Amino acid sequence: xxxxxRITKEEIIENFPxxxxxxxxxxxxxxxxxxxxxxxxxxxxxxxxxxHDMLQEMSNYFESIDKNPGVTVYEVKDVFGYLxxxxxxxHQNIYSIKEHYEKLSEVTCxxxxxxxxxxxxxxxxxxxxxxxxxxxxx
Length: 138
Hints:
By secondary structure, the protein is an alpha+beta fold. The protein has one domain. The protein is built from five helices and four strands. It has helices at residues 9-15, 24-32, 45-64, 92-104, 130-137; strands at 71-79, 82-89, 117-121, 124-128. It is elongated and about 50 Å long.
């Protein structure tokens, strides 16, 4: 079991302010009385590290082409145990990076970042290594 330093959403957004989720709900709630809220990030540290590394790779790409980050992030979420990131960018390389990390999430423990497999738990599906799965059962 890999022990990672805890990464928070606030730290990620501080490092990559361009990656803050666009909150359409606030505009829509004020203008049209439409109700929609972004789900809160409830990811384990393994998943947070993947998100951090993905955004770092995107940032590195923009530095390599000497441009400001051209990405709009709409939502970061878990779908059936896998990481899914809804975003828009005019740069195709950003989609390749996103897809790479979404694929990595399918084999990376959500809690510790080690190699994991999809597990059925009481509250849904999650990618966990043997050790983290055992810890959840206790």
